[in-house]
Amino acid sequence: MAIPDTGGPVETAPPADDGYRVTTVELFFDLVFVFTITQLTGVLAHELSPVGLLRVVALFGVLWWIYSGYAWLTNTVAPTTTLRRLLLLVGMAGFLIMALATPRAFDGGGVAWGLGYLVVVLVHGGLYAQVNRQILRVLPVNLAAAALVIGAGLTSGPATYALWIAAVLVPIAAPYVIRPGGRFSLRAPHIVERHGLLVLITLGESVVAIGIGLSENPLDTRTAVAAVLGLALAAALWWPYFAEDDLRAESALARMDDARRTGAIMNAYFYAHIPLMIGIVAAAAGVKKAMAHPVEALHTGPAVALGAGVAAYLLGDAAFRRILRIGSPAIRVGAAGLSLAAIPVGAVLAGEAELIALVLIIVAALLTERRSTGGPG
Q1: What is the pLDDT of residue 120?
Q2: What is the pLDDT of residue 13?
Q3: Has residue 152 got a pLDDT over 60?
Q4: pLDDT of 280-305, one tens digit each?
Q5: Are 99 and 67 in contact (CB under 8 A)?
Q6: Does residue 373 carry a pLDDT above 70?
Q7: How far apart are CA 39 and CA 97, in angstroms?
Q8: H/E/C letters for each residue in the chain?
Q9: Which of 326, 285, 377 minimizes the C-alpha distance to 60?
Q10: What is d(CA 56, CA 49) in angstroms, rounded to the nearest whole number?
Q11: Residue 170: what pLDDT?
Q12: pLDDT tens digit string along 72-109?
């Protein structure tokens, strides 16, 4: 999914590999953002159905666009002054409002969600315009998405869903119209670290889902086994992304010129991370349900969320590898297919059985990679 590099010159071009890393205020920002991801897990766990999944995908699509915008923002505009830090705090407040409105975003809370998004968009545009006025080409897209979400909050029925879908499609399609290649200069170490920390924090929230799911169970051997299996799945998801691929990604990006790097970051860290992040959300929702009665067969919804969530994560990770050319995606695509095949294990046998199957699939895929291609060890 390549983005042509046909844009104009960059107004401010910071060094692409100057050692600039994520600051603590950015990490603080990400903790607030991940609260919205946690809310999405709650929404999906509450309604494990096609409609529930559609809602989560729509909410995440709009969220992910503007989060990526903030990652690019702090990559270019270092939040080192008091004013910039205060403005980021205002943006965090906007994300907090969105998080609080998420459970009812399609049922009376859409206006609040859209107003929070509007705050986030305005802070982002104002800060970015200080160093690169190319952002003014993107600002109308962000404002349009906010208007669509607010409009969705003022409607009901099919019109609500139509406006939400439009709010997702507008920013996703924007890079093919605006052509970011050549207009922005991004530091590879910062981008890799920022997204890696976000994935790590989100995986951490999946561990929290284990505790929530087991909160009403007695602390006995059965509970301990279920908890360890949930943790094993989170660790199995951590391994393919962080064992070596994050370092390889940084190296691959650092070797590119500004225009190629911008396109690669858009494809690898925006588009490919969409199924990866949604996969974590879906798997966490499935784990949360599985923990309540781990030795019983799962209902169809939780079993699908668990298996399909892992499959989506692996497919996103495979696309990430392919885009940056840091390893063969074939084995991970195969593992994604096997993860889908594991859904009946949970639906027929037990949630624990599906967790075991998924962990074994990922471990087998990683071992196969290591033997055949020198993958993560």
Answers
A1: 95
A2: 39
A3: yes
A4: 999 999 998 888 888 899 999 999 99
A5: no
A6: no
A7: 12
A8: CCCCCCCCCCCCCCCCCCCCCCCHHHHHHHHHHHHHHHHHHHHHHHCCCHHHHHHHHHHHHHHHHHHHHHHHHHHHCCCCCHHHHHHHHHHHHHHHHHHHHHHHCCCCCHHHHHHHHHHHHHHHHHHHCCCCCCHHHHHHHHHHHHHHHHHHHCCCCHHHHHHHHHHHHHHHHHHHHHCCCCCCCCCHHHHHHHHHHHHHHHHHHHHHHHHHHHCCCCCCHHHHHHHHHHHHHHHHHHHHHHCCHHHHHHHHHHCCCHHHHHHHHHHHHHHCHHHHHHHHHHHHHHHHHHHHCCCCCCCHHHHHHHHHHHHHHHHHHHHHHHHHCCCCCHHHHHHHHHHHHCHHHHHHCCHHHHHHHHHHHHHHHHHHHHHHHCCCC
A9: 285
A10: 11
A11: 87
A12: 999 888 898 999 999 999 999 999 999 999 999 998 88
**Alpha carbon distances (Å) from 25 to 86, 89, 136, 174, 352:** 10, 9, 25, 28, 39
Handedness of CA 278, 361, 377, 267 (dihedral sign): negative
Q: Is the entire prediction scored with pTM above 0.85?
A: yes
Sign, Cα dihedral of 205, 80, 93, 270: negative
pLDDT of residue 182: 58
From the CB of residue 86, how many other CB atoms can be counted at a distance below 10 Å? 12
pLDDT at 1: 37
Q: What is the mean pLDDT of the chain?
A: 87
How far is 298 from 355, CA to CA, in rounded Å? 11
39-77 pLDDT, tens digit each: 998 889 888 888 999 999 999 999 999 999 999 999 888
Residue with tokens 């529930």: 52
CA 222 – CA 117 distance, rounded (Å): 43
